[in-house]
Hints:
- The chain is an alpha+beta fold.
- The chain has one domain (about 5-125): Roll (Nuclear Transport Factor 2, Chain: A), CATH 3.10.450.
- The chain has helices at about 30-40, 65-85; strands at about 10, 25, 90-95, 105-110, 115-125.
- A hairpin with a 4-residue loop joins strand 4 and strand 5 (about 115-125).
Amino acid sequence: MLDASFLGRGWSFPVSFSKSGHAKMSEHEDDIEESLRILLNTYPGERTMQPEFGSRLRDYCFEAYSLRTETLIKDEISKSILLNEPRVDVEDIVVEQTDAVGVLRINIVYVVRSTNSRRNLVFPFYLNEATDASV
């Protein structure tokens, strides 16, 4: 079996601890996936020591869904990953509406550079957040 330890290891997120009191860890491809989720959920400026880290997805939270919004979301995700996650190359980003009002499903297909392993991340994104969608 391939030794994938070089892919990284970090604290699991959200931070949690085992019964023995040790921090739970995330490793290899799981660590990369967690890093991508953290990247997409972090707004630039939230990290004091890394003010450029994150994505501006929240800027589109109250936008009506349109081809323009879809394109802007794809560009933001692509740019954020390119600048902040050197372990992967993005192959494709698909944004699609779901049956739920105001919810987009973002499917990110990426390749882990060091193993040439193709992976998929499905990321839910909520438009019209904090509103009553039934009105």
